[in-house]
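hey can u check if this looks right to u? its 106 residues, i copy pasted from the old doc so theres a chance i mangled smth
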Amino acid sequence: MLIVTTDTVPGKRIVKTLGLVRGNTVRARHLGHDVIASLRNIVGGEIGEYAKLVAESREQSIDRMEAEAQALGANAIICVRFGTSVMAQSAAELLAYGTAVIIEDE
């Protein structure tokens, strides 16, 4: 499945638009990671534990969006975007969304 952030794919034409597809996940921080992050705030540097959490959340959201598109019969998702929102003090949602389409070579 081709997944792009653009509204067109060079060398391809959209033959059918199937509609909005999305995938999301809600993740909570781990208390142990919060302690490490607090220490890193003092000395500076990347907070690898949070970077890993965000990367895993993004991949899970993309996988869920792709599964929804495949269920519709799509072979591509265009106009992909990401959104986040805070769900609770230590939990956040990551949402991936786009338009499921069928594309063919021009």
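The mean pLDDT is 87.
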